[in-house]
């Protein structure tokens, strides 16, 4: 059995992971059409330009949707966890985990901020946490 | 429906009123076969199941392998070249005029429509579609099958991707877990009394049973989710002219359409992008067939989970956006209801076997239109087959009809 899958950076994604190691969230931005998108792709999904570049994100946003996964797809996950889609305020949408005190506390519309956590020597993951943690 | 089919039946063979073939080559389904379907078939392998599916569909059509000039069928091996469709030429004992190497082109509505297009255009006369690929053997929860850099690390898999769409639908429209559970119970109970179903004899289930089963990924309980198993299936498409004198009434491919938002699972499925995925395809397919949603007698729809049926009731035009929950929970999708869905028990109870579950949806639709289904819808003349779904970000639909 293998553990939790480790992302394998590609030439497209390497700058994302490099920035993550520094604790910075960067998102592909297309100067030709202005779109900020995620995941990094060979062509901008707005205008097919290959000339996009990474730009910094403030790492704040809102939960667009969330599922609390009780049955993980394999070993290496600490279920239950809140698998969420986060819309960043400054553009781009990410799949992530929102780590709240209780995964059931994570709801659609919740304000969240990025929280980088080392995973392997090479990979640091952009988790999200509630912007205003429950007291 | 009566008016539509009266028009159809008054047409001469090869002169379809609906989906009018320009050259008179009207595609029809003349043979279907489903192998045994089970959680595990340790005494079978994929090649053996694919051979049975193909031979069975050819025999059901009243044809012989020499009559087949096109094969859109998985070739798992051993022997031949695994994945190369032309491997079927030697098995069928003749040169082929049409083949396909892609697993998804060899199943369900997509496979059927490509075969129908080939037959209608004259690239081939008689095409077999189907096969078997054992995806469940030794695997964990079903995923994309290839590493996905920004999805796998978060523990994303098929159930969770669909759950993200369902959760947002519930948030926006007030769709409830009980409505989901009603769908699961209704379709599962069709399988309870279908001797071919993997879950035959299990149940019956109430919505409360579904809600009491353990949570997999909110909002989906275990009984909201489809089963995973093994098995194969195939069908044979030819022209209405060639179908004359064959043992079963030909089932016409009246219309069809496909819709793809993006590749499956690399990006999360977003309700705002895929919640209504398939609506455009459905409108095109109905227009091609010259029918409306309410003319359809029976629906054979992808049910990887209970919610995907609620979503499809909307995109298929049976209700407005966001109204699928109440419609599904009203009894309308039961065998005796207004819009019966998956009388065979669907993927929730009859079978899910990887890609060929899509072909099983066609098999059930054809049996319904022949009048030979296990849970027969009385006088079924028009059927819709819908494959794939919102989590996977694609939809393929076909409209099938009886010719009298």
What value does the Rg of chain B take, in angstroms?
A: 20 Å
Strand order of the largest sheet of chain B: 3-2-4-7-1-8-11-10-9
The percent range for helix content of chain A is under 10%
Indicate the CATH class of chain B: Alpha Beta
Supply the number of helical segments of chain A: 1
Oligomer: heterodimer
Q: Sheet bearing the most strands of chain B, described? A: 9 strands, mixed
Q: SSE order of chain A, as H and E?
A: HEEEEEEE
Structural class of chain A: mainly beta
- Low-pLDDT ranges of chain B: 1-17
How would a crystallographer describe the biggest sheet of chain A? 5 strands, antiparallel
Q: Which structural class best describes the helix and strand composition of chain B? A: alpha/beta
What sequence of helices (H) and strands (E) makes up the elements of chain B? HEHEHEHEHHHEEEHEHHEHHHHEE
Distance between the termini of chain B: 14 Å
Given as residue ranges, the uncertain stretches of chain A (5+ residues, pLDDT < 50) are none
What does the radius of gyration of chain A come to?
15 Å
Report the principal-axis shape of chain B. Answer: globular
Walk me through what this model shows.
The complex is a heterodimer of chains A (135) and B (404). Chain A has one helix at 14-21; strands spanning 26-29, 53-56, 60-69, 81-88, 93-97, 111-118, 124-130. Chain A is mainly beta and 135 residues long. Chain A has one domain (14-130). The longest helix of chain A has 8 residues, at 14-21. Chain A starts with 13 loop residues before the first helix and ends in a 5-residue tail after the last strand. With 404 residues, chain B is of the alpha/beta class. Chain B has a single domain, classed as Thiolase/Chalcone synthase (Peroxisomal Thiolase, Chain A, domain 1). In chain B, 34% of the residues lie in helices and 15% in strands. Chain B contains 14 helices and eleven strands. Chain B has a nine-stranded mixed β-sheet with strand order 3-2-4-7-1-8-11-10-9, with helices on both faces. In chain B, strands 5-6 form a two-stranded antiparallel ribbon. Chain B is globular and about 55 Å long. The model of chain B is unreliable at 1-17 (pLDDT under 50). The A-B interface holds A 4-10, 13, 38-39, 64-74, 77, 79, 81, 83, 85, 93-97, 104, 108, 119, 123, 125 and B 140-141, 143, 147, 149-157, 159-160, 163-165, 167-168, 171, 214-219, 266-268, 270-272.
